[in-house]
Amino acid sequence: MINPKENLPKKVDREIITPHRLTVAILLKEFFKFRTSDIYLVLPLEKIRPRHVQDFCILILKLIQNPDLTLLELRNLLVSDKYTVHKHLLKEFDKVLDNVNSKGMRYFLDLIDEVRRLILRDMDTVRKTSHLQINKSSVVGYYIRRFLLNFDKLTFSEVTAVLQSFKRYYEPFKRAHQVNPDPLMACKYKEISDWNSDKDQWSRRQAELFIASQAALLSNNEGKALNPKELQFHIRNLLKSNPDLAEAHFLSYLNYLRVKEFCGAVHSLHHCFDRMNLTDNRNSGDEKNKAYRFAALNLAVLHYQMEHREEAFAALKEAITMAQEANDNVCLQHALSWLYCLINTNKDKLLEHSILKSLDLNLTYIMSLGIQSFVQYAGVTSGNPKQIFETITKSDIVNCQHSYGDLISASYAHKSSLWLFYGKTEMSSLWSQLLLHLNMETAVLGKSFCGEPLCLSICNLANYFTLQGEYSLTNSLISLAKEHFPNEPVSNSWILCENLFVFIRSLHNCHWFEAETAAQKISVVDPWESKLRLTELLLYRKDYSEAHQRATEILKHKLRIDYQIRAMILLAEIQCNSSFPESVPPGIISLLNSSLVYANDFHLNYLSSIVHLHLANVQLLLGMPGQALELLEGGLVHILTHGGHFDRARAVLLYVKCVVANAGHKPEGERNKIILEAAKMLDDVRSGFEKVEAFSRVKDVLYLQARLYNEVGANSERNKCALDYRLLEEDHPVQSESYLLTFL
């Protein structure tokens, strides 16, 4: 989002002295008086006194920063278990409040003078008094000085109004105290939230602090921000006290974006820039035009988030036109960064121009973001991997020099995704783990970052554990992502991850209905992934005509290269299985070779290895096991290194079938030795399929293993395989045909 704050002059009104602020000042006075009393001095120094002071400091800081509380709520905080407040301090505090309510104006003015004497003036004053005093430059000192400054500006009638307002403020507590005279129990109701009040009164400083803290959390750590409903409630309350606060409307705009509420977001954005222009009538025309430029730019961002591409392009075009007319290079570079997301042609030239211009203007953030976008674009357009990783290192240098926490995390996520795209799953999971172990609070000057890159890393590890058959770890990681990233668009990552997990597990267990449901849910966040998974499901269900039709339909569209290669592999599998055992389609090798060329051109090593396995399988079906073994050398090592348990088991199973078929013309003794070794290798294949719960595949492996043991006369091993098959059939009675003949 583009920050609308443009250093416009602000109109600062005199703050109202509310009963809550008066009560906090009284509490501070009584605390410093209590610290010099005999009761405090006899407290155990090593245990109670440090805890007492620490808790009170934290409590006062919350009371100063938070909106006004009722006296009942304030007293509830004082007697709660969260803070250690001495009974004597509470007693004296209650007594002073009662005196202010009952003794009138004279006592009230004397009390203000006592508060005034808390401020540290000079060293002579310190020597003459025995009371502790407040440093005027401290947080509490600033609060007291501001309170006294606003009080001194009041007329006598306004002072009287303050006193009368305090009496109305004190009345609910007085009634509760009459019901239960015990000062520690009169207000000890259910513990409340620090922000919970239907009558919030916000000073401008409190509102600005709240807005800044919530905006930072929405940008860096959304999980710790207030939920959308509660945040909108507080925004409405602070706008009642500060109707001209433009930043509050911008925070409302960000909050509406979290829940995809278009009307509310547009309404808040318009109010934000209206308030910015009405803040002070002395704004020059150039400053107002600058606000209009950024308003159009933010409107374009809003439409892009809502997937209104035409409207976003129109608003962005307006922002670019105004920026060019005013020669505003900063706004123009922001607009060019978003233009990259909206156009489909000449992206490389646009990114190159944006990076070079940002470098000239010293816009380091936009430059680093442009480098990462360029790396992402180069990855999917057959860029050289070596040059890509060298380029993203330049972004890392800029990020570390300027402590850009979000871009540091994004760089890790980009490296992880690039390694995954190239088929190096182990390297991909390593970079995801490095991001999760990165101490961002130390790296970025105490500001933690917990945004989309972190969610992507969690989901990447969840997908990795799914392929490794660690389903309990996958569930834990998905639950973690749900907890920290509940809102769109970041939530789309774990929605896709969760449904992929359900689909893969259901497919292995032959639960077709659950797999189909999961594949259909994927279409919400990734339509092409959903189509590919549904086609894969039809292949496993042996609905070859429908699967062939869907795969052909997918290939008619211009897809991302990895999707296209996967669709071509699926089409080859469908053609092979639908025509076997009568024949092997003559065009299947040409189709697989075409997909192999694409995979090699784009450096997609894992998909290239999968294609090698399918080519070897076709050679085996054609009765050429020797050529199949040679082809296996091109992909087997990579699959065993970076594949999941399912793919590794399939690869080793294919290798065993090729070895056994190739041993048919060897002498009987040598042939029996090869078959016996191959049968033992199937133990690893069996354990791999069991790990991912592919029990129908386990049955096929047991059947093949029993046949091989029977071939060499190993009757005891054969019988054991038969027994395991029977027990497995009882535990998992899945009705499925054998995959041994054509499937990998």
Automatic annotation (TrEMBL):
Q: In what pathway does it function?
A: Protein modification; protein ubiquitination
Keyword Cytoplasm recorded: yes
Record-linked Pfam families:
ANAPC5 (PF12862), Apc5_N (PF21371)
Name the GO terms of the biological process aspect. Answer: anaphase-promoting complex-dependent catabolic process; cell division; positive regulation of mitotic metaphase/anaphase transition; protein K11-linked ubiquitination
Q: Which family does it belong to?
A: Belongs to the APC5 family.
User: What's this protein's function?
Assistant: Component of the anaphase promoting complex/cyclosome (APC/C), a cell cycle-regulated E3 ubiquitin ligase that controls progression through mitosis and the G1 phase of the cell cycle. The APC/C complex acts by mediating ubiquitination and subsequent degradation of target proteins: it mainly mediates the formation of 'Lys-11'-linked polyubiquitin chains and, to a lower extent, the formation of 'Lys-48'- and 'Lys-63'-linked polyubiquitin chains. The APC/C complex catalyzes assembly of branched 'Lys-11'-/'Lys-48'-linked branched ubiquitin chains on target proteins.
Q: What is this protein called?
A: Anaphase-promoting complex subunit 5
Q: Which species does the entry assign this protein to? A: Agrilus planipennis (Emerald ash borer)
What gene is this protein a product of?
Answer: LOC108744293
